[in-house]
Amino acid sequence: MTAPLKIAIAGLGTVGAGTLKLLDEQAELLALRAGRRLQVTAVSARNRNLDRGVEISGFQWFDDAVEMARSAEANAVVELIGGSDGAAKAVCEAAFESGRHVVTANKALLAHHGTDLAAKAEAAGVSLTYEAAVAGGIPVIRALREGLAGNRITRLHGILNGTCNYILTTMRETGRDFDDVLAEAQQLGYAEADPTFDIEGVDAAHKLALLSSVAFGSRVDFDGVYTEGISKIAAMDIQYAEELGYRIKLLGIAEMNHEGIHQRVHPAMVPADAPIAAVEGVFNGVVTEGDFVGTTVLEGRGAGAGPTASAVAADLVDIACGRHAPTFGVPAATLSATPSLPMDRHTGPYYVRLMVIDKPGVFADIAATLRDAEISFESVLQRSREPGGVVPVVLTTHETSEAAMQRALAAIEAIEAVREPPHMIRIERG
Ligand SMILES: NC(=O)c1ccc[n+]([C@@H]2O[C@H](COP(=O)([O-])OP(=O)(O)OC[C@H]3O[C@@H](n4cnc5c(N)ncnc54)[C@H](OP(=O)(O)O)[C@@H]3O)[C@@H](O)[C@H]2O)c1
């Protein structure tokens, strides 16, 4: 058998410890599949004395992960520290400078510096891979880069954040409100103490920027991703969605047309019978559309030690076998500068919930505002009647432009009888 692939691991938290466990327990299987052993030689984290539930005494310890990436006896460095800059970025750069391959699970780092780091890896003649960074255990980067290589991808959409999907699923199943379910998710460990990156859609936007790049062969453009989270979704919207035949999901959507690429992360109503609607709880799902293959659906666990370690191991097996694909599917220098399109160029149908004073003439004012914006209704729903009180009125529209919808919403908000800013959710075909 060929000499082992020597591996240095930076970061021994959830994913780092999970990766050590997998590499140990699956050592024989991996050696068979890779044709050589995958041997961890060095590790680094902040605290050497922490019990991580895995044995690390047999590895060389480094207090400084950058120093490890430069000097450890290793062919590949696995970056599992996290963060878009700082130590994680320095570790990758040091590894490239010393001719070592890099495997990372760090979507924030690649969303901000992916194109640049891919170019540095290529210049050094090594690989930079990140299967674990997008949708955890689902091999979606490989699917796009290899399995679907014969297709032009026209669109993809996915549930890319398990925390948000858990919250939305629980809200639907229990009828409870967002804040209540978020607090429970934090207690259960499904949401961070500071959940902002997850619930405001930033984590999903990081992942979408990477998917978009590998799907369309374009430079990673995180700043071009329109991002809106789930914190304004009310239990009432979830009930109305069900009544209308939809489910609400936080979707990441990337579409390419002749003008550019739409990249957007926002809550969306999808038909209840669409494949993505069936992806529930902490699970992730990605639906791709290719010109020859048609639609492909992938579903699985998007986070956690086991699924993430599974994806890291796949990248390490590739390195051990000498399979080195360009980071985003094509050489970094050939990634296109296709522009990301602004959100006001989006078109589609919309759901709008208004809280209005129940009195004659109000609906006529709302209808006139929509008519002036050239938006036509598909349906109107007013269940409760409470003369003089505040009641919900729910509208769905036919396809219209985001720009027209935003104008109409501003005009509706100015109507005196409308008592809250309108609650708008985009409807997607799923
Ligand atoms: N958790 C998941 O399910 C998941 C899923 C997909 C992707 N990811 C990504 O995987 C990466 C790691 O996530 P995680 O959940 O494993 O994080 P984590 O549990 O917070 O672990 C981070 C590790 O990095 C170490 N570390 C921090 N600063 C360091 C430095 N300057 N030098 C060396 N080590 C340092 C920490 O050391 P100490 O332990 O000594 O404090 C800790 O072991 C992130 O990029 C994350 O986005 C995570």
CA gyration radius, whole angstroms: 24 Å
Mass-distribution shape: elongated
Considering DSSP H and I runs of 4 or more, what fraction of the residues is helical?
25-40%
* CATH fold-level topology of the largest domain: Dihydrodipicolinate Reductase, domain 2
CATH homologous superfamily caption of the largest domain: Dihydrodipicolinate Reductase, domain 2
The total beta strand count reads: 18
In short:
With 430 residues, the protein is α/β, with parallel strands linked by helices. The protein is 37% helix and 24% strand.
What do you see in this structure?
This protein is α/β, with parallel strands linked by helices. It has three domains: 5-133, NAD(P)-binding Rossmann-like Domain (Rossmann fold, 3-Layer(aba) Sandwich); 140-301, Dihydrodipicolinate Reductase, domain 2; 345-427, 2-Layer Sandwich (Alpha-Beta Plaits), CATH 3.30.70.260. It is 37% helix and 24% strand. It has 14 helices and 18 strands. Helix 1 (14-25) packs across helix 12 (305-321) and helix 7 packs across helix 8. The mean pLDDT is 96.
List the main descriptive attributes of the protein structure presented here:
binds NADP nicotinamide-adenine-dinucleotide phosphate, six-stranded parallel sheet, ten-stranded mixed sheet, alpha/beta, 430 residues, Rossmann fold, Dihydrodipicolinate Reductase, domain 2, Alpha-Beta Plaits, 14 helices, single chain
